[in-house]
């Protein structure tokens, strides 16, 4: 917080002196002391939030140096480096497109960080990528779309609410770029659909809001006008949701449009019978009940009754 305040003040009042300050700080990014690398990276990350670095032709220098911190042994340095790269979307949005490939690669590498036990780096990568998406070239995103969607999917059920929220919001944002590879991304929507619908009962309001947003974004790609309209009308952020009635209607549309999906949807719901969250545990059998209620007779043979009764 102190670094943030100092940096904001310097961006406003010390513009002409910043090039020399940045030049003198760059060696600190390679310091043997974690504290010096953390403070310098934090300073650069905050500075990238301001357009002053663009005005002073510092953006490329700072970006190159902060990108070099992605392999730092200190998790906090790696996290702050990604925050700084994400901040370019606020400080110099017009330059994001030019450096899109490099920025996108940094975010994907952050999500794949192997030495990140609490997923702090992955969380920052997802949050920063959501900020950058609107400024990136569509073709750059489409080349990485499936990799990102598959990579973030496990975070939907994370015990950490901020990871659930960030991954679900990012997934919603990614749907804007799915047109070029619609069939493959549609498969990812189907893979996440049950989870997003069940997490409308998440104990954390911010995760519920994220699910509403993601489902509204997914609706147009689902090829079912009734479902799309339901998501847009019933999942507005300011509207309370009668979950049981909503799910009854959702399942009716699902079984009218995708009856062949019945067994797949049931199997995914069975996984949540053992969820740690009681409301989600309760929602899963209700979901299955509505699916079976609305499927026509011809598709009933998909259901493995023994598996359903045993709840495994």
Automatic annotation (TrEMBL):
Residues of the Maestro/Maestro-like HEAT-repeats domain: 65-310
Cellular component terms (Gene Ontology): cytoplasm
Pfam families reported in the protein's UniProt record: HEAT_MROH2B_C
Highest taxon, organism lineage: Eukaryota
Protein name, UniProt field: MROH1 protein
Organism, as annotated: Chauna torquata (Southern screamer)
Gene expressing this chain: Mroh1_1
């Amino acid at each position: 917080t102190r670094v943030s305040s100092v940096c904001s003040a310097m961006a406003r009042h010390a513009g002409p002196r910043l090039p020399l300050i940045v030049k003198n700080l760059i060696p600190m990014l390679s310091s043997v002391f974690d504290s010096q690398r953390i403070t310098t990276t934090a300073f650069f990350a905050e500075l990238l939030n301001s357009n002053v670095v663009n005005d002073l032709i510092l953006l490329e220098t700072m970006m190159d140096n902060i990108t070099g911190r992605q392999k730092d042994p200190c998790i906090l340095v790696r996290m702050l480096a990604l925050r700084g790269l994400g901040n370019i979307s606020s400080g110099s949005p017009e330059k994001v497109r030019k450096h899109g490939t490099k920025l996108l690669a940094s975010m994907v590498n952050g999500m794949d960080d192997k030495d990140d036990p609490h997923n702090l780096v992955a969380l920052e990568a997802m949050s920063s990528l959501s900020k950058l998406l609107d400024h990136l070239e569509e073709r750059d995103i489409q080349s990485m779309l499936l990799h990102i969607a598959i990579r973030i999917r496990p975070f939907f059920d994370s015990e950490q609410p901020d990871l659930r929220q960030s991954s679900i919001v990012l997934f919603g944002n990614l749907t804007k770029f799915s047109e070029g590879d619609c069939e493959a991304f549609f498969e990812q929507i189907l893979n996440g659909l049950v989870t997003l619908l069940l997490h409308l009962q998440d104990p954390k309001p911010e995760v519920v809001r994220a699910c509403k947003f993601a489902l509204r974004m997914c609706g147009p790609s689902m090829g079912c006008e009734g479902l799309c309209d339901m998501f847009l009308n019933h999942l507005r952020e300011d509207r309370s949701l009668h979950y049981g009635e909503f799910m009854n209607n959702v399942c009716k549309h699902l079984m009218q449009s995708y009856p062949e999906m019945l067994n797949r949807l049931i199997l995914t719901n069975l996984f949540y019978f053992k969820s740690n969250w009681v409301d989600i545990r309760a929602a899963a059998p209700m979901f299955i009940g509505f699916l079976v209620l609305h499927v026509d007779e011809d598709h009933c043979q998909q259901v493995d009754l023994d598996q359903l009764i045993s709840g495994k």
